[in-house]
Amino acid sequence: MLLGRCVGAAQQMEKQIKGRQVKKKYLCKVEGEFPSKTLECSQPIKIECHRLGVCRVDPAGKPCSTSFERLHYDGTNSIVACYPRTGRMHQIRVHLQWLDHH
């Protein structure tokens, strides 16, 4: 969540977000050993039920892309940095599931 302390700062942040100048990074904890090399997932995602938020990888879906980088593995779980390049609903979760990591 981003908050501008004044109207001008909030408007500048909004402009940068709309202009896709902001790079997003999320950290996820996943079960198992995530591959140590950086992975790129460019599978299209289709919304099955917008009301319930059900999405899945589907060739008829909208194009999207996420890159993943393993930061840590403790023998049971991995910490993964996720960099979405598009903003589809549940994109990171759907791509991680497609890569067989939950």
Briefly say what this structure is.
The chain is α+β, with helices and mostly antiparallel strands and 102 residues long. It has helices at residues 7-18, 91-98; strands spanning 26-31, 39-41, 45-49, 54-57, 66-73, 77-84. The chain is built from two helices and six strands.
Topology:
Elements: H1 7-18, E1 26-31, E2 39-41, E3 45-49, E4 54-57, E5 66-73, E6 77-84, H2 91-98
Antiparallel strand pairs: 1-6, 2-5, 3-4, 5-6
Protein architecture, described:
The mean pLDDT is 93. The relative contact order is 0.23. The protein has a four-stranded antiparallel sheet with strand order 1-6-5-2, covered by helices on one side. The protein has 102 residues and is α+β, with helices and mostly antiparallel strands.
